[in-house]
Amino acid sequence: MTSPTSTAWIPPSGGSGPRRRGSARAELVFAVALLVYGVAVGACWRLFAPVIASRDGGSEDVVAHDVTLSLLAFVAGVAVGIAVLIRPGSRPPLRTAVAIVGSILAAGVAWVVGLLLGEPHVRAIGAPFVWPVTTAAVIFLGTLIPVVGRHVDQAAGYVPPAPPGPPTSYTFPTSTAE
């Protein structure tokens, strides 16, 4: 049995209680929201890329399409990472995994939606996958910030140890010299 000031993380009890079902439902909703966000990013790519691209159709045009998708993916990754840090859910490690895997899938969805809406093929294959890398980096760096780290720890059920106080009493050793 651990004391209330123990540093050990105590996972939620097993079973299929309301907390576990609610947590799974929340993660499913989060994953679906990421996929919808991927559709929106793909549509934005289709809308913004022609504006950014030059009118002569040269190599700058191809680069402009790739960079537009990369920038949109970067912004999406930052937004998802911040959302996970602000709302880590009842099980932050699961929310983080859902965010990263969902970002990978959403990046693929954005890419496909952009192609279906008429964008030329992306030459920089990694352009849409800036999203999951950015998401992971924002979550990692965000947990290093003390205020955010405490927020995530509290959501996970981690109880920090009590700070050490001064000793309550101290007895000096007595000598038994005769």
What is the average of the pLDDT values?
78
- The sequence of SSEs as H and E is HHHHH
Counting helices, strands and paired strands, the structural category is mainly alpha
The total of helices stands at 5
Q: What share of the residues does DSSP label as strand, in percent?
A: under 5%
Unreliably modeled segments: 6-10, 14-18
Rg, alpha carbons:
25 Å
Strand count, sense and barrel status of the largest sheet are:
none
The total number of structural domains is: 1
Q: What is the total tally of β strands?
A: 0
State the share of residues found in helices, binned by percent. 55-70%
Oligomer: single chain
Shape descriptor reads: elongated
Distance between the termini: 48 Å
Q: Could you provide a short overview of the structure?
A:
With 178 residues, this protein is an all-alpha fold. The protein has helices spanning 18-52, 59-86, 92-116, 130-144, 146-156. The chain contains five helices and no strands.
Give a verbal description of the structure.
There is one protein chain. The chain contains 5 helices and no strands. It is mainly α. 26% of the residues are buried.
